[in-house]
Amino acid sequence: MIDDVAEAAGLAGLTQSVVLVGLMGVGKTAVGKRLAVQLGLPFADADHEIEAAAGMTVAEIFQTCGEAGFRSGERRVIARLIEGPPMVISTGGGAFVDPDTRRLVKDRAISIWLVADIEELVRRTQRRNNRPLLSAGDPREILTRLAEARAPCYAEADIHVASSRGPVEETVHRVLLALTLHLDQPHHAHA
After folding, report:
1. Looking at CB atoms within 10 Å, which of 70, 146, 172, 177 has the fewest?
2. CATH code of the domain made up of 4-181
3. Helical H runs in the chain?
């Protein structure tokens, strides 16, 4: 097995940020933090950055401004993060679904869709109660509906990686391999 650190050394000097997208509970933050360490880049959680900018929690922003208001602020925060030096950014589950945010990420960063099956997402999201979209009914039904509705948008990501049921490091390893392959493709050299 290739050593993750040696593998990441081949990715030194990334000129674009790496943006993790996918449904809530797929592991974007956990994978993102470890990926950033492997790549020697800073890490930012877009939801935390949004909360800091607004002085409210994501749930409070949804209550006060509605989803449209939240998405507008989210887009501005993600744009600010991408405009800075390269970093690893985890996004909220709906960020990449917004057409303007998706275009921004596709134009200026490398997007990675982390995918997990519904049962795994239900298991993971039960650990925390700060998911406004899951508070309105049966989490399995909501996640299934969201997965079906959002898959076409997520599929536009540059790279698709299965989020492992095992240790987070397994998924990080897969992301590093996929990122290396993506950057080795001729089309990327001209992007």
Report:
1. 177
2. 3.40.50.300
3. 4-9, 28-39, 46-54, 58-83, 99-108, 118-125, 139-154, 168-184, 186-189
